[in-house]
Amino acid sequence: MADDAIDMDLSCSPPPSEDGLDIVSYVDTIEAVIASLDQGDGAMVSQTDEGHLWRFKYGSVDVYAQLTGEAETDTLTVWSPVLMLPAKDEPRLMKLLLEKNCNETLEARFGISGNQVLVISSRILKDISPAEISRLMTIVATIADDSDEALVSEFGMS
To answer: Strand order of the sheet with strand 116-124?
Structure first.
């Protein structure tokens, strides 16, 4: 070939966006991360007006991921229930969870929704990378799996 030949990219990669970054489907990225983390019989997914919702097994916990859409202002939220309420010695439990939030949970946190203690993390999609999606999902799944059995053993009612 001549030195002035034009290199042509014949790969199936998506075209670069205006800012030079590859356009990657958030759904595809989330599903790839789930495939690498899932330790059950495969993830379950549903699509509603509120977006996509996945559930998969990681160790001893169920992990949920919800994507509200694919615009910059949409949100990816990942959570995993670790303890049902009411619990034994709830004041001590709450102190322990606040200490863990301060010292151990990185981008995730413990919280309460309804009658469940959760490990949860949420992020808007603006400027999110596939690596950040993977990290967010991995952190929630790992902290939940590492925490659930000890919390149930120490604070569970049944």
So the answer is: 44-48, 51-58, 61-67, 75-84, 116-124, 109-113
Distance, C-alpha 42 to centroid of its chain: 16
Amino acid residing at 13: S
Structure tokens at 132: 């950040």
Task: Please state the domain extents for the chain.
Answer: 26-155
Considering the domain delimited by 26-155, tell me its CATH architecture.
2-Layer Sandwich (3.30)
What pLDDT score was predicted for residue 42? 85
Tell me the per-residue pLDDT of 26-80, one tens digit each, with 9 for 90 and over.
Answer: 999 999 999 999 898 888 999 988 899 999 999 999 999 999 999 999 999 999 9
**Element holding 137 (H helix, E strand):** helix 130-155
3-state DSSP helix/strand/coil % of the chain, to nearest 5? 35, 30, 40
Q: Is residue 101 helix, strand or coil? A: helix
Phi/psi for 65 (5° steps) reads -130, 130
Q: Lowest-confidence range among 8-22, 54-68, 139-153?
A: 8-22
User: What predicted TM-score, i.e. pTM, was given to this entire model?
Assistant: 0.83
Coil, strand or helix at 130:
helix
- The three-class DSSP label of residue 106 is coil
